[in-house]
Design goal:
Blueprint (H helix, E strand, L loop, with lengths): L1 E8 L5 H16 L5 E8 L4 E8 L2 H4 L8 H13 L8 E4 L20
Antiparallel strand pairs: 1-3, 1-4, 2-3
Length: 114
């Protein structure tokens, strides 16, 4: 398994808009991509962010945006329009370990389960 890591961020006043966009546009588009295995969208208090997308193979993780499905291309373009940092390229990491808890009724935040 491989992770594609994209650094970015947004102004604090547009953080909710970007989070909504990720849930409503980006994640549905990712789910149609071959090899997609999960994602995390992370933000700190300053608005800096990381998007970590998990893929089955290194080739799938490193596929250029131009070779992705049209829905994902559109979602990535929309996300970059809300982002304050798009100058750094995505990096590819090999996943050394992965633990996923399923079936838990606990929620750490009030956000909807994705």
């Amino acid at each position: 398994m491989f992770a594609q890591v994209i650094q970015g961020g947004t102004a604090t006043e547009t953080r909710d808009e970007l989070n909504d966009f990720v849930r409503e546009e980006l994640i549905p588009a990712l789910q149609d991509e071959p090899g997609f295995a999960g994602t995390l969208s992370l933000f700190d208090k300053r608005g800096e962010g990381l998007m970590i997308m998990l893929w089955d193979t290194e080739e799938q993780a490193g596929l250029p945006t131009a070779k992705r499905c049209a829905a994902l291309q559109k979602a990535l373009y929309g996300m970059s329009a809300l982002s304050t940092r798009s100058d750094e390229p995505a990096t590819i990491w090999e996943v050394g370990a992965k633990v996923v808890h399923t079936g838990s009724s606990r929620r750490l935040t009030g956000e909807p389960a994705l």
